[in-house]
Each structure stands twice: as structure tokens, then as C-alpha cells.
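Case study 2.
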Amino acid sequence: MHHSANNSPLRQFLAAFGRELRARLRAFGDALLTGGLHALLIAVYAVTVYGLVLAIGGYADLRVAPPLPLTMLALFLVALGIVPLSRWMGHRLDSLLTSWPDDPYGTMSKLQSDLGRDPSPQAIVPTVVATITTTLKLPYGAITRLPDGDTVSVGTAPANAERLTIPLTYADTVVGSLEVAARRPGVAFSSDEQLLLHRLARQVGITLHAAQLSEALQASRAQLVAAREEERRRIRRDLHDGLGPTLAALRLQLGAARRTLRSEPEAAEALLDELRADVLEATAAVRRLVYNLRPPLLDEHGLAGALRSLSRLVEPLPLRLELPDTLPPLPAAVEVALYRIAAEALHNVARHAGATSCTLRLELTDAAVLLEISDTGTGLPVAHRPGVGLSGMRERAEELGGSIAVDSGPGGVTVTAHIPRRAAE
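Prediction:
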């Protein structure tokens, strides 16, 4: 509950609003301070030049009004130098008030510290953007995540200000982009500033990739929980709607048989025959439940023996088996996935392939477990669309980090399941 409250939409909105408000106040404060100092220095310059001209002209005493030509000369000299001086002072003040850190490591240390306050995946990107804009004193920063294209921004870019977009990469994969705006219109990023931003982008790319992995892990956990609950619901439904009523009926029939056993032996015998049939049906229902959880053949004969038993699915078609002499112990989930994939593939061969033979091959390498089912049939139609069976096989393989490949041609179809060995271990 505590974790859910910390990541509530209201809390996220307030955090984003706070970051945006701080960025705007900081930009307004910087602009106000820069403008005030700029105006003060220009006023000092104008008074100084005007006073020097009057002093050189012999009118240092302010109680004596200087002649008009001398006043016009002083104002002309003030106007002549005010534009270049204003530009020079603007650059100096901007550099002084918005000086960047000497190296990216200080910025990364602050970034790690900020991320430590709220390490949830949803807060990583907003925290990174806010830290970069605040530490580097930028008016605007934004990160766009791939492949969804979501953008998180902080601040507002000045009109006509230069924008720099840097791709965020992890290894050779682009995971997003970083966009920043220059502090003032007409002031470009220096080479040192661009170098610093590119160094930061490399670190941000690693952080963004880690956030994506964390979100993918959370989504995977949610899917596993949903699948587990769905399986529990199915078992509960089978027990409640199937086996439960059957056992209840057996109890009633036993009571009726007991009451008629002495008085009506023939009726009791008929009831017992019905009971025998119902017991067989209940036993079959229990076996179906057990089989849906885990094929009993895997426990009785192991994976190799269970795969050999699948030859019945393609009879009278001959099935060639290529299995290792010995199989190392594999996790239950891997054995079930391999067995189910093989059963579904052979079922498709028997129904649709029109083959004269098929082959099942199981191979263990250092990197993966490979299951291959091939037939000598006519191949898949050109406009074939994957059905429920193929989708189910693919889902079973992907749950373990693997994949399914289907190769179809005039000589038949080959289905290859690839499960990483690390998943089997």
C-alpha cells in the first residue's frame, strides 16, 4: 500500500508541477537578476563616460551647466559604445550566472543522489530531466523515450533559442533522445558544453535502459501473476462445475443404494452399476485436471520417454526420433513447454501436413535447448495465418525467454523451438 501511494497519479502530478514551477521560477529569477545587473552596469558606464567628457571639457563642477555641444558629444560617445558594451556584458553576465560544472561527474553524482530519493521506474525520466536542467542551468530540457515516443520536459525554451538534440544509446541501441535549449537567443552552445552534454547523454542512456528493463520486469511479473490467477480460476471452475457435482451425486446414489440393498436387491445392483460408471467419470476428470497441470508422462518416463510416447499422435505416420542418449535434469517449466510444443506441432502434422514421415529432434547446446519438428508434407499455404496452436507454442517459448521459428517450403514444414540454456538452468 505504501508503494502504491508513493506512485499515485496525484503524487506524480504534484511532483511534475513542482519541477515545472521551480524551473520557471529559476528562469524568471535568473532573467531578473541578469537584467538588473545589466541595467546597473549600463547606467554606471553612461554616467562615467558623461562625467569624463565634462571633466575633460573643463566642466567638472556640476553646478555649472555645460555648453550644448559638449553635452551632445558626451551623449554621442555614450551611445556609440553602449551597444557593443551591452553585448559584451550580456555574454559575461550569462557566463557568470549560468556557469556549468567543470566536469560531468559532479552532475552524475547529483543525478544518482536525486534518483535515490525515488528509484521507481516512473520517476527516473522526470528526475533525470529536472537534474540536468537544474545543474546545467538550462531553461528547457526534454527526454523522449523509444519506442513509445513519450516525452517528459521541464521548463520553457526561449523564443528563437538554439536547440540541441542528442540520441540516448545503450550499446548500439537507441533508447531515446535528449533535447536541450540554449539559455538565450543567439547564444550557441560552445564546444565544451556540447562535449559535456554528450558525456551526460551516454550515462543517461544507460539509466534510461535500466528503467526500461525495470518496467519490463514489472510488466512480466504482472503477466505471471495474471496467468497464475487465471489458472487458479480455471482449476476452481473445473472442480466446482465438474468434479464437485459428480462427487455429490455419488454420495446421493450411495445413500439410495444403501436404503434399497435389502428390500430391492435388483434396484440396488442397478444403482451400483451407475455408481461404477460415475466413479470412472470422476476418475477421468481428476486425470484431466492433473494432466492440465503437468503431463503425468513427464513424471513417469521423463522428458525423453514422454516425447517418444507422442508417436501415437501421428500414427500410422512414421515418427523418427533424434534424442540425446542422456538428458541432464531440466526445470519442470522447461520440460512442460518442450512437451506441449512437440505435442501441438505433431498434432498439426497429423491434421494438416499430408506428410509421409516426420522427425522430432531434441538437442542441448551450451547456449540453448533446441526442439525441432519437421515433416515431408506440402508446406503451409501462401496466405496462411498463424492459428491458436502456433500462437500457444510461441507463448510457451517466450515465457522462458525463447522463440519459435517456422520454416515452410515445398518439402514440408520445420518448427524450431529455441529456449536459452540459462532459462533451463
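The first helix runs from residue 2 to 6.
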